[in-house]
Amino acid sequence: MNILEMKGVSKAFGGAKALKDVHFSVAESEIHALLGENGAGKSTLMNILTGVIPMDSGHIEFEGVDYPHPTIMEMESVGIAFVHQEINVVNDLTVYENIFLNRELKNKLGFLDKKSMIKSTTELFRNLGVNIDPNNMVSELKTSEKQLLEICRALHEDAKLLILDEPTTALSSQEVDHLFGILRRLREKGKSFIFISHKMPEIFEIAQSYTVFRNGNYVSSGAIKDTTPHQIAADMVGEEYIDENLYISRPLGETIMEVENLTGHGFSEVTLSLRKGEIVAFTGLAGSGASELMQTMFGVLPSVSGHIKIKKKVVDGNITSFMKNGVGMLPSNRKENSVLPDMTILENIYIAEHSISRKKPIISNKKEIENYHSLKKMLRIKAQSHLDPIHSLSGGNQQKIFLGRWVNTEAEVLLFDNPTQGVDVGAKAEIYKLILGFACKGKTVIINTLEIPEIKKVSDRCFVFFEGKVIKELTHAEINERDVMLYSTNANYDKGV
Amino acid sequence: MSTNNKDNILIKAVKIISKAWTKYSFVFVFAIVLVVYILTIQANGNTFRWGHISSILSSQNTVIVGTIALGMALVIITGQIDLSVGSSLVLCSGVTIMAFNVTNNILLTLLAALGAGAICGLINGLLAGFAKMPPFIVTLGTMLIYRSLTLSFVREIDPKITGSSSSQFSLISENSNYEFLRMQFGTGSFPGISVPYITMVFVLTMLLFLLISKNTKYGKSVYAVGSNEKAAHLSGIRVQWTKVTVFIIVGILVGLGSFVQACKIGNVTPASSGKSYEMYAIAAVVLGGVSMSGGKGNLLGVFFGALSYTTINFIIVSIPSLSTDIQDTFQGLVLILVILVQTVGPVIKERFIDFRKRQKTKQLDAT
To answer: With contacts defined as CB-CB under 8 Å, which chain B residues touch A337?
Structure first.
């Protein structure tokens, strides 16, 4: 039996049709994957379902009841909970206070009944197998724990249908396993989930059924066991999708950057060297030190001991001196670390170039626009006017703008921290193609990512990090999903290999 | 079918107007205020003349507050605030007047004015931008300090240097350059077009800073810091340096304002001059459409904001039945009204479009 039925839902923003007569249904106690590229209409549909925005036409039926004009309050009260991609917990309160936010228990005198709240939180956590102390401050929790907390809060409100919007983006694979364990248990207890994700392996691991949207249209749906990742990917991107093997073996140049015995925040005694035109991957679980090493190689974090050499010259100090020596870094978390939200596309792509060439203070508009158009063509950015705000672009195109930010500085060493984060399948493939293109033009690229198939697609070498150390260096031929996973969880060590 | 077309045209018109409104709201605000001013003049039985415009242009509120507001806008765009500008204005005016009284040299006087302003700004900048203390508190502190220092110095210093024995700084009229500074530059107008010189100084300063904000890498970095500090830092922008420099710039503009004030008025009273100027400057910035949360705003808007602010003053003064005491009430109300329109406007627009759309689908359902 279906717990949720949405039929003939349409929605337009201005002239743009975000949803065109789509259907979507979720059965009782199932995990239903909702798939589609950015802009396919997933978020719009979920916002309609939870009453955030009104639909232009269509029907919503939840547990057999019709909701012609759902509101946020109404949908919450009937048991639909939205666990957002950006984590919505209050950092300055304790865990149990978050669970009871807006529905605090009170004693006879009208004061907060802490004891009962803590007790009931402990019970909830025990039932779910969550290992968090209810008295902890939320600000001290790890991202994954915050995510779990948000799910727990929804369950505590007795949600029957939980919408999880890319819940695994910020999690390491162990944490994902833990989360999935909990989801499976909850499913057995009769809860339903709408699971929004870009990661194919996860979907095949956790979901029972799926629905694919493309450009605001319903494309396909069915049981996961009757389909293949390839089929779903093809449904998502339409005919554009080509799962080609991108890797090209090519001659590498001389050594350009060397890291010698470098120790810093979260990593120690790392030694490695990079050659001109090489693509190197860093990988490791969250907290492995790979991201911190990358930030130290760009002067964001200070090193404790050891050297970084570029073209045999020791480089030390802040971001500016690394930029002057031809290094550029695309940080992770686009929204937080890359987007200048109030500024135009042109300003966003030029900001790093401006800070490197500040000795010539005047901007030449004509030259910048010309250059922007050639970058736009090279990076295949889909944008209307260079004066549009950066927010008018989809996630993938924004990310290409930020790649362009460093192409624009003519950096020779490009550090990309999680470059395909929050980017849809089509754009992912394009970004990796661009990365190979950079390498073919003699740029050196380091990618820090957890997506092992992507590492295999482009990189010449892969460094696996575990607890702040390089635990294994793999050549292109040696890279495979199983080995990388083994090393990054340090499973070999445990077996004494 | 024809109703449908009408609807489309209506929606399009609303969209165009709302787009222009969001981008050039400051021009609309000034136009509305100006129309009201013209109406009140005519209601008083007078005819509107160029002289009215010219007095708006040369008013202290336009020229001095406006000059300061240009710098204030940059500070606000980086996401900070400067409450000390009114106090540093009297401090700088004191320095300016004393410099003139001692040297009788116009260039040295101007340099002293700009230098004093730059130092006031540098102190704010180092504390707020460099030592990362909250700018609101830092400049609240220096606001108290700058004025009280001026108040106590004016009594201690020889009247031959301050130019006055009554707790005032005053230009000494015996100096040979007094005539030029006060009569020709300070209160004079460009021959032929009757635009005051001090207004031209303000307009030129505005154009210079408009150019800096739009066409230099420094200008872009100011916006970037206010838009997303972390992203700006990771793009190689020297965030702290940028934050310090905007304070120095507002300081220099305060210095320029104090020079103009000395030339226009000839004296300054530390106890009362420049009081609440920080608020007037912030008001002009906000009327000019600059976002208080940083990252957004146009310095051309600040120019119009200063004009609107002065005109509102003039309207109130020109209504005989209103006492000047009530002036601030009206200014406050207009300020709140403008912000209300700026924030509520887009919401109304969206509701309107939504409403039209729902009506349309209803019509389609009916047929």
So the answer is: 230-231, 234
Residues 6+ apart with CB under 8 A from A396: A37, A38, A423, A424, A426, A427, A428, A430, A431
pLDDT tens-place string over residues A429-484: 889 889 999 999 999 999 998 777 778 888 999 999 988 899 899 998 888 777 78
**DSSP class of residue A93?**
S
Q: For residue B195, list its beta bridge partners.
A: B190
Alpha-carbon gap, residue A321 to A286, rounded angstroms: 28
- Give the angle B58-B71-B73 at the CA atoms, nearest 5°: 100
Q: Which residues, numbered 291 to 320 in chain A, qualify as contacts with chain B under a Cβ-Cβ cut-off of 8 Å?
A: 300, 319-320
DSSP structural state of residue A389: B
Q: In this complex, which of B216, B227, B358 lies closest to A342 when CB atoms are compared?
A: B227
Best of A13, A59, A296, A351 to disrupt the B interface (most B CBs within 10 Å) is A351
The CATH number of whichever domain residue B7 belongs to comes to 1.10.3470
Q: Give one DSSP letter per residue of A186-197, joined into a string.
A: HHHTT-EEEEE-
> Measured between alpha carbons, how far is A139 from A149 in angstroms, rounded to an integer?
12
**Which positions in chain B have a beta carbon within 8 angstroms of at least one beta carbon in chain A?**
215-218, 220-221, 223-224, 226-228, 230-238, 291, 295-296, 353-354, 357-358, 361, 365
Distance CA B322, CA A90 (A): 50
Q: Are strands A413-417 and A444-448 parallel, antiparallel or unpaired?
A: parallel
How many domains are there within chain B?
1
Closest CA to A465 of A484, A482, A452, A444: A484
Residue B205 C-alpha, separation from nearest chain A C-alpha, in angstroms: 17
> Shortest Cα distance from A261 to chain B (angstroms)?
25
Please report the domains of chain A, with CATH numbers, ordered by start residue.
Answer: 2-240 (3.40.50.300), 255-495 (3.40.50.300)
What are the pLDDT tens digits along chain B (367 aa)? 455 677 778 878 877 777 777 778 788 888 988 999 999 988 888 888 888 888 888 888 899 999 999 999 999 999 999 999 999 999 999 999 999 999 999 999 999 999 999 999 999 999 998 898 999 999 999 999 999 999 999 988 888 898 888 889 999 988 888 888 888 888 888 887 778 899 999 999 999 999 999 999 999 999 999 999 999 999 999 999 999 999 999 999 999 999 999 999 999 999 888 888 999 999 899 888 888 888 989 999 999 999 988 998 888 888 877 777 787 787 788 778 877 876 777 677 777 777 776 676 667 666 6
Chosen for mutation from B234, B347, B350, B361 (greatest number of chain A CBs closer than 10 Å) is B234
B217·A405 Cβ contact <8 A:
no
ipTM over the 0.90 cut-off: no
Compute chain B's Rg from CA coordinates: 23
Q: Cα A291 vs. chain centroid, distance in angstroms?
A: 14
Structure tokens at B202: 């303000």
Distance CA B135, CA B150 (A): 22
Residues 6+ apart with CB under 8 A from A93: A101, A137, A138
Q: Judge: A351–B295 Cβ closer than 8 Å, yes or no.
A: no
Output the DSSP codes for A395-439: HHHHHHHHHHHHHTTT-SEEEEESTTTT--HHHHHHHHHHHHHHH
Nearest CA in chain A to B293: A342
- Using CB atoms, pick whichever of B231, B236, B295 lies closest to residue A338: B231
* Dihedral-angle region of residue B53 (phi above 0 means left; psi in -120 to 50 means alpha; beta otherwise): alpha
Distance from CA of B292 to the nearest CA of A (A): 13
Nearest-Cα distance to chain A for B227, in Å, is 5
- pTM for this predicted structure: 0.78
> Is A355–B238 a contact, with Cβ atoms under 8 angstroms apart?
yes
